[in-house]
């Protein structure tokens, strides 16, 4: 199973329009406020930090490059060719490798696993953007990438985040500048129940090893200068 062409086209349209400037995208916050915070919860559960690390849904690669300074072999994977073009342009020294991957296609994940072996995988805000029929296939593909030794860290906006986003979108001045393109390209967040995330993982044969809550930091600010942060939940998973 693979994602619909509508979904693929939406991401290509978004990333083709997006500026390559750092922080221009709504969720492209500084790694010290995003991946760095997540890594503090992820690293204690790694069975082998020398395994390849896949940044799944890497977008323009801001977080990927952060990981590449800390792990020996990092791969940024994304559905969008335009996103990967941004990532490669921002990484002229080749700190990381970049691969186009349909993360809802288990066969593609199995092929990448055959190439890399077991891997640790970081997933930030991907599941909630998937169409409902693609969520379990994504979890299944994630399990294929992990193999026996890999660990996954998933962080997703919680259900409460949708209320925050809709409030921003429906404000008297309209959505904030960096949120507007997300909505315009039909990338509105799906209503994934908080309790559904670990269930998708368990159905894929994975065990939830740890979980918690953190604010998901964005690059946008309210009219009074307050940085917009979305409530989020995180999960570490792997084979038992």
TrEMBL record:
Keyword tags: Methyltransferase, Transferase
Pfam family, one: Methyltransf_25
Molecular function via GO: methyltransferase activity
One Gene Ontology biological process: methylation
Methyltransferase domain boundaries: 54-150
Protein name: Class I SAM-dependent methyltransferase
């Amino acid at each position: 199973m693979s994602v619909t062409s509508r979904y693929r086209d939406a991401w290509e349209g978004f990333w083709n329009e997006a500026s390559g400037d750092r922080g221009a995208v709504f969720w492209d916050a500084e790694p010290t406020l995003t991946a760095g915070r997540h890594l503090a919860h992820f690293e204690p559960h790694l069975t082998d930090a020398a395994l390849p690390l896949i940044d799944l849904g890497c977008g323009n690669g801001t977080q990927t490059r952060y990981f590449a300074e800390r792990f020996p072999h990092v791969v940024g994977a994304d559905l969008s060719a335009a996103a990967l073009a941004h990532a490669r342009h921002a990484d002229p020294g080749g700190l990381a490798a970049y691969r186009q991957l349909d993360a809802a296609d288990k066969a593609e994940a199995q092929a990448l696993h055959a190439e890399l072996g077991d891997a640790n995988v970081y997933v930030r805000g991907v599941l909630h953007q998937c169409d409902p029929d693609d969520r379990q296939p994504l979890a299944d593909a994630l399990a294929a990438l992990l193999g026996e030794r890999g660990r996954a860290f998933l962080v997703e906006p919680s259900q409460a985040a949708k209320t925050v986003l809709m409030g921003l979108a429906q404000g008297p001045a309209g959505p904030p500048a960096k949120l507007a393109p997300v909505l315009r390209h039909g990338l509105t967040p799906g209503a994934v129940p908080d309790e559904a995330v670990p269930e998708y993982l368990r159905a894929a044969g994975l065990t939830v090893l740890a979980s918690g809550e953190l604010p998901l930091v964005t690059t946008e600010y309210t009219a009074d200068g307050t940085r917009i942060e979305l409530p989020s939940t995180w999960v570490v998973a792997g084979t038992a």
